[in-house]
Write a structure and sequence with these properties.
Layout lengths: L5 H5 L59 H9 L31 H13 L2 H5 L1 H35 L8 H45 L14 H26 L1 H28 L8 E5 L2 E2 L2 H4 L11 H6 L11 H5 L2 E5 L9 H4 L40 H8 L8 H4 L7 H30 L2 H4 L12 H5 L4 H33 L18 H17 L2 H29 L13 H18 L1 H21 L8 H17 L13 E4 L12 H10 L5 E8 L2 H22 L4 E7 L2 H11 L9 E4 L12 H15 L3 E6 L15 E6 L6 H9 L9 E8 L5 H14 L5 E6 L7 H50 L2 H13 L3 H11 L5 H8 L5 H21 L4 E5 L10 H11 L6 E5 L11
Parallel strand pairs: 4-5, 4-7, 5-6, 7-8, 9-10, 9-12, 10-11, 12-13
Antiparallel strand pairs: 1-2, 1-3, 8-13
Helix pairs in contact: 3-8, 3-15, 5-13, 5-15, 5-20, 5-21, 6-7, 6-18, 6-19, 6-20, 6-22, 7-18, 7-19, 8-15, 8-18, 13-20, 13-21, 18-19, 20-21, 20-22, 20-23, 21-22, 26-27, 30-31, 30-34, 34-35
């Protein structure tokens, strides 16, 4: 057992105070030190060990705050509660030590929590008010096709939704949560708002349906507006719908505001109404097979007559009857009558022939009508009409022009509502099991009901009655009510309450969806709608929802509102399918849904069907919905709060980036595709501020937002100690990039020496084919006055590294004088001095700069240099032709440089340069000698002290010390001799030796070139806004580095803004297309 208790073996080796787990008897018996100084012991006296860390995990105790024990992690997951979406990020709710209130465990199962709510939301107003009309107009076959397409769309969407819903815990928030966390905040916000608008317009549609049932079939006498002529009946009806719809909306909004619990209690009553209504339809269809209900329809020839006109009058055309008075000018037998009335027979046909009548053979084909057409029965005889009928005659007319696409848009809302289960995910006992089963079973049930209803309606009801939208031919009865058993009132009352209930559910769900979007804080202007009452009820969101629903009610036509909400729902379903397909194809590691009966092909098929239905039902509404979603997307992208939800779009971006990078690896870019991909080298001062921010400004002007930009800096030091400093420097660079509006990446390297860090950055920046091809760095300011030569030596080393890497190099000189992004240059010139050809960089850079607003007004001039043996006239012609083929507009000038003798000024300038170099070299040497002298004196004193100590102890050491003392003695004479030998400028003789230097011939030649070129450039370009100039390469011998800096200074002397350009050795511009 000793091995199981290591503390026991340590007891004899420790005192009571040293034992790591020894507790005092009293909590006040020790000082305030709670923890031992030993770094491996984390002990708190007076507190039980279980409150801190387990003894068996002592190796990990220092990281317990960031890497908790598995037991505590599992404990937090066990206590997980489904949070109201948007109240706070669900990830934050998992933070360590968060206090939670005791929540009642959700107990709803699949049937009550998902299946029945989905049924209630799917079955709606369209089933009772429009499905018979759809069947009669489109025919049984095309109606089956419409229902099948719409049901397939929702089924495929439900499969995709089930996969997403079972991929982890879905907090309350349903479809919006799933889409936003799968596709990112931009798509989530856009589709979330589309779903919100769809739900809001659905509420308006249900209210309009309830008002239509009320005014058409329950209480026609309640109409406020009544038209005296047939022409004004439609307008009067719309006005009635607007008034009553607004009243209903206000009452429903007040009910929702008072308390959602009342709405939830009424939900079961409304659902019972729906189920009873549907059962009465099926019962009536079966009863009609042997005992069809009596609903006669009066026909004139093959034209349908309105039952409102006849009332209880007999259906015959004898004198004094109601029909005679409608078609004739008087009650007399010799009165003048309508031509069609005289030639046609009046007959009466059953409105509900019954299931066994075979009427389905007449209803199987479509009968699309134009607005104003009379409903006709094709099998009845009819004379050829001379004039089209007028609406003053008692016929039943078509109120709108119908087509297959119109019917699709009107019917589709009747299959929406499949998200009801996922919206209640917070109340489900096992959401990952209940949502797929309940939703798919509800869709299959409703699809079966719709498909069977289409067949039953076509088999039981007369065609003209089916096409009669408002039941005028059957004396104003609801058409589907004529089929129901035992009475039409079952359907009328049931459908009225079910549509009211559906409207209440929409007005309850839509504000919560808007509140969830607002609390996610992805759309700034919606933040106000995230607030509500003290209990969390979304008051402001309810107010906005009511205002938007009022817009739908003011439209007043059910047939016009239905396609609008179809668009928004289809948009939402499309993106649910897209989310599932993306996650499946990208094979994200976190994509592990429990629902396994999905495939990316099904999701893509669902997407295609959704998109097709959008444009089939109403192409202009589809475009409007897409534009609205696109505007919301761009708004969130540019102004919304940044969120990282691990969404699929980010995964898609990574996959696309990987694919593109691999494609770029296939070969070097063609000359036509070459553009400067910049690596901008910046230097930070002691306070971690960018020394030359105008370098970034220049880079942004050169890039104009295109191509790659990497901004880098080097911090000298050790990476282990300077990690925090590197992160701070990176944040500084990002802030400066945002300020200068530079799109790109930043990189910070920690190295022992700056030149090594720059070399590493030039070698390793970028990835694959997405690498920099141009380096931008600043000119070393005041390098002549600097005692430390490292700045210009690092500069020259960077030039050499860039040349070795075959990269282009841009060095703006006097960068502080370059214009900012808000300082556009006045009209002037960008002068290019093309002295040697190194790939055409000098031609391309001015063209790119002029794309930016700062340089847009500047014209371009190109100068080149002709020697004595060159034909300057021909050179100018050739250069103009070359620029013409390059499609670059520029003035051309050839400057002749004659072979003149080297001037005394050049000779003197070279001599001054070499003398200065020699003097600085001697000064640096004498400085190092002074340091050596001080060190030798220090060593002498220390050796004297050691010798005196040794002589007291041992005589043998005295001899050795004496010898050492002789060697280390530093006398005045020796010091003078050493200085005279090693310091050439410390004596008048040494100074005279330095003055007698003869300049090197190659340096004189280089200085001559620099002076002559500078004279010509200053003469021609003294007023230019910017001068671009070939940058000569550094000398191969590093001993002449300081002279190289001097040559560059002479070359650019007297010029305000200069850009030294050094090509990378490859062509960057071409005359070919």
């Amino acid at each position: 057992m000793v091995g199981l208790c290591p503390q026991a073996t340590m007891l004899p080796l420790m005192s009571g105070e040293d034992m790591p787990y020894n507790r005092p008897t009293s909590p006040h018996s020790r000082d305030g030190n709670a923890k031992m100084s030993n770094v491996y012991i984390n002990n708190s006296h007076g507190v039980d060990d279980d409150d801190f860390y387990d003894r068996n995990l002592a190796l990990f105790e220092e990281e317990m705050d960031t890497r908790p024990k598995v037991s505590s992690l599992l404990n937090r997951l066990a206590n997980y509660t489904n949070l109201t979406q948007g109240a706070r990020e669900h990830e934050e709710a998992e933070s360590i030590g968060e206090k939670r209130k005791a929540h009642k465990s959700p107990q709803m199962g699949t049937f009550m929590g998902v299946y029945l709510p989905c049924l209630q939301n799917i079955f709606g107003v369209i089933l009772f008010l429009r499905l018979t009309w759809v069947v009669g107009t489109a025919g049984v076959l095309q109606a089956l096709c419409i229902v099948f397409i719409c049901c397939c769309c929702t089924l495929l969407t439900a499969i995709s939704m089930s996969a997403i819903a079972t991929n982890g815990v879905v907090p309350a928030g349903g479809s919006y949560f799933m889409i936003s966390r799968s596709l990112g905040p931009e798509f989530g916000g856009a589709v979330g708002l589309c779903f919100y608008l769809g739900t809001t317009f659905a509420g308006a549609m249900y209210i309009l349906g309830a008002i239509e049932i009320l005014l058409m079939y329950i209480a026609p006498w309640a109409a406020i507006f009544v038209s005296g002529s047939p022409d004004g009946e439609g307008a009067a009806m719309l006005n009635n719908m607007r008034v009553y719809g607004s009243i209903f909306l206000l009452l429903m909004a007040l009910l929702v505001f008072v308390g959602v619990k009342y709405v939830n209690k009424l939900a079961s009553v409304f659902l019972a109404c729906v189920i009873i209504s549907i059962l009465s339809i099926y019962t009536g269809a079966l009863v009609s097979a042997f005992s069809p209900p009596t609903f006669p329809v009066c026909m004139l020839g093959n034209r349908t007559l309105s039952g409102h006109i006849l009332h209880d009058s007999p259906c015959n055309g004898t004198a004094t009857t109601t029909l005679w008075l409608q078609f004739c000018e008087g009650p007399d037998l010799n009165a003048s009558c309508d031509y069609y009335f005289n030639l046609s027979n009046i007959s009466e046909i059953p409105g509900i022939p019954g299931l066994s009548s075979g009427v389905i053979t007449e209803n199987i084909w479509s009968v699309y009508l134009t607005k104003g057409d009379v409903l006709e029965k094709g099998s009845l005889p009819s004379p050829r009409p001379v004039h089209p009928p007028t609406n003053r005659l008692p016929y039943v007319f078509a109120d709108i022009t119908t087509s297959f696409t119109l019917l699709v848009g009107i019917f589709f809302p009747s299959v929406t509502g499949i998200m009801a289960g996922s919206n209640r995910s917070g109340d489900l006992k096992d959401a990952q099991r209940s949502i797929p089963i309940g939703t798919i079973m509800a869709i299959l049930t409703t699809s079966l009901v719709y498909l069977s209803s289409v067949v039953l309606f076509g088999a039981c009801i007369e065609g003209v009655v089916l096409r009669d939208k408002f039941g005028d031919s059957v004396k104003g009865n609801l058409v589907v009510g004529t089929l129901s058993w035992p009475s039409p009132w079952v359907i009328v009352i049931g459908s009225f309450f079910s549509t009211c209930g559906a409207g209440l559910q929409s007005l309850t769900g839509a504000p919560r969806l808007l509140q969830a979007i607002a609390k996610d804080n992805i759309i700034p202007f919606l933040r106000v709608f995230g607030h509500g009452k003290a209990n969390g009820e979304p008051t402001w969101a309810l107010l906005l929802t009511a205002l938007i629903a009022e817009l739908g009610i003011l439209i007043a036509s059910l047939d016009l509102v239905a396609p609008i909400l179809s668009m928004f729902f289809l948009m939402c379903y499309l993106f649910v399918n897209l989310a599932c397909a993306l996650q499946t194809l990208l094979r994200t590691p976190n994509w592990r849904p429990r629902f396994s009966y999905y495939h990316w092909t099904l999701s893509f098929l669902g997407m295609i069907i959704c998109l097709a239905l959008m444009f089939i039902s109403s192409w202009y509404y589809a475009i409007v919905a897409i534009v609205i979603a696109g505007m919301i997307y761009k708004y969130i992208e540019y102004h919304g709060a940044e969120k990282e939800w691990g969404d699929g779009i980010r995964g898609l971006s990574l996959s696309a980036a990987r694919y593109a990078l691999l494609r770029l690896e296939e070969g070097p870019p063609h000359t036509k595709n070459w553009r400067p991909q910049l690596l901008v080298l910046l230097k930070l001062d002691e306070d971690a501020y960018v020394k030359s921010p105008r370098l970034l400004t220049f880079a942004s002007q050169l890039k104009a937002g295109k191509g790659l930009t990497i901004v880098g800096t080097v911090i000298t030091g050790n990476y282990l100690h300077s990690y925090g400093e590197a992160l701070a420097a990176e944040q500084t660079l990002k802030h400066q990039m945002d300020k200068e509006k530079v799109k790109g990446f930043c990189q910070c390297i920690v190295a022992n020496k700056a030149r090594e860090g720059i070399s590493h950055m030039i070698q390793s920046s970028g990835l694959g084919g997405m690498r920099h091809n141009t380096v931008v760095m600043g000119w070393p300011l005041a390098w002549r006055q600097s005692e430390d030569p490292q700045s210009w030596k690092t500069f020259i080393n960077t030039v050499r590294v860039t040349t070795a890497a075959h990269l282009a190099l841009l060095v703006p000189k006097n960068i502080s004088l370059f214009p900012g992004n808000s300082e556009p240059c006045a009209e002037g010139y960008i002068d290019v001095w093309w002295i040697v050809h190194d790939g055409g960089m000098l031609m391309l850079l001015p063209f790119l700069l002029r794309q930016h607003k700062v340089w847009r007004k500047c014209a371009m001039r190109i100068f080149t240099v002709a020697q004595m043996e060159d034909n300057s006239i021909q050179m100018k012609k050739d250069l103009a032709t070359f620029l013409y083929h390059l499609r670059i507009e520029a003035d051309v000038e050839v400057v002749e440089m004659h072979n003149s003798d080297i001037s005394a000024y050049t000779y003197e300038r070279t001599l001054m340069m070499e003398q200065r170099s020699q003097m600085l070299r001697q000064m640096r040497l004498s400085k190092s000698d002074r340091e050596k002298e001080a060190q030798l004196v220090k060593d002498r004193n220390s050796m004297l002290r050691l010798t005196s100590i040794g002589s007291d102890d041992d005589e043998d050491t005295d001899g050795a010390s004496e010898n050492r003392r002789v060697h280390m003695t530093w006398t005045k004479e020796k010091a003078l001799q050493y200085r005279a030998t090693h310091s050439g400028c410390s004596t008048p003789e040494g100074f005279r030796d330095m003055l007698s230097i003869r300049p090197d011939h190659s340096n004189v030649r280089r200085m001559h070139t620099a002076v002559k070129l500078n004279e010509v450039i200053v003469n021609k370009s003294h007023d230019a806004r910017l001068v671009l100039l070939n940058m000569p390469g550094p000398p191969r011998n590093p001993a002449g580095d300081e002279n190289y800096m001097e040559f560059l200074e002479v070359l650019t002397e007297g010029l305000e803004r200069v850009l030294l350009v050094r090509g990378g050795g490859s062509e960057v511009i071409t005359i070919y297309s």
